[in-house]
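Everyone, carefully examine this protein record:
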Amino acid sequence: MGNCLIFNSPTDVSKKSKALPIETTFKLPSPLPTWPPGEGFGTGTIDVGGLQVCQISSFTKVWGTHEGGPDNLGATFYEPSSIPQGFYMLGCYAQPNNRPLFGWVLVAKDDTGSTNKPIDYTLVWSSESLNIKQDGIGYVWLPTPPDGYKALGHLITNSPQKPSLDNFRCVRSDLTDQCQTDTWIWGPGKDSSTDGFNIFGLRPSNRGTQAMGVSVGTFVGQTQNENNPVPVACLKNINLSKYSCMPNPRQIEALLQTYSPFVYFHPDEAYLPSSVSWFFNNGALLYKRGEESQPVAIESMGTNLPQGGSNDGAYWLDLPADNKAKDRVKKGDLQNSQVNVHIKPMLGATFTDIAIWIYYPFNGPARAKAEFINIPLGRIGEHVGDWEHVTLRVSNFNGELWSVYLSQHSGGNWVNASDLEFQAGNKVVTYASLHGHAMYAKPGLVLQGNGAIGIRNDTAKSKMFLDTGLSFSLIAAEYLGSAINEPPWLNYSREWGPKISYDIADEIKKVEKLLPGKLKSAFDKFVKGLPNEVLGQEGPTGPKDKRNWSGDEI
């Protein structure tokens, strides 16, 4: 279903000097392709167990504010429009005004008694007494469900009269799951900690490949009190054939051809990615504790690596022993690089997460910025082996890309598609930071730290880039069963690099000599607080040993 915006005519009490971002509707640069045939993927509706749900991204504006919320630009509240015949609202949609309109809510069709009308509404809040710029007065309502049913979202009106009971549905309790607040949408202050009434997005509390909670796309309004339980629920997919709406292998390939990211490297980057097999074939070694003098060459797909177990320190990988070969392997092999793709169901199999894992044989030294001084950190940050990833979250209703997760050292963040750069149609553009390879949506400098001192994450567009769609290996898609053969190296559970032997304290002292007195102690405290992923004291574990392999990214 396409995005469109239908405006009512609320009274605008303010004269805006310039258009707000939300007054523009975001669309992907190119139309969605026709996906290869399959079972339930991309068909527009999903059966979650006796309840048909459909994703709506066209809206009618009901009410808006012009201050408060992110960037103090206010927020806008909508009802879903162009609802197919026989489907009913489960809740309204809200979005901050600081980005283009781009969102969705689910509507439901019931043929089995899975839904019921609310028996009443409770007024949760109104903006009547609020001294802010707003389009009329907004009223937030909570449906009162019949016994055995739950409400999945709030309603918004611009009238003090209660909404109609006929257009809204509550859902049978066994088809619901617990949810929690997600991103802050709006409140009267500059952030969500401000006392008073705040609006948040919602997401299932339990998320992962085996979790069946389904996001409805609605919002919740509540006063700032952590002890208040969320008064609404999310959906739950109890369909025994729940994976039928996931993409099949041909559809996976089409999704990658459509969205596969470009990764741009800094013009000064010396440590580029490679395929895993190239790393193994060019002299990588397997070490065993107690037999350090007898390392073993690794076979092309890692067939001689120890399988399973835990990261117990008994084994580790390292660069070739020969110095010339070591220096060459450190630089990677960008031209023949291959990425590794993991496909997993998310949010009750209503979305597909396409996790694209990129391997770098070496992570280079870090650099810091202390006030106006740029500081090379010697060997701090260096380690053998570096796994970074970017995850595409795609709707199983229509195959549309909604957000992208960018890994950054030990963390990362989700970026809405409306905030991304694209090229060659709908292919996402990302930027890998110099030496550390953290992923960002925009070029420039990001400081990792507090105050005036931080680790530099420099990104820029250069002639060096990786088109992840040119060469990829589908390494796992558990829901497809035996259709995908996992490579042996994926089940190697130990570290992909040795524990670094250099003395962190000595490296810090070398750097402190370059700093003015007032920054020395602050810098020492800052470095000691950095995680191992940044300090580079040991190599990383592989993709399958990361929490997000079977869980959500955040």
User: Anything to note?
Assistant: Confidence is low (pLDDT under 50) at residues 1-16. The helical segments are 249-259, 276-281, 323-330, 504-512, 517-528, 532-535. The chain is about 10% helix and 35% strand. The radius of gyration is 26 Å.
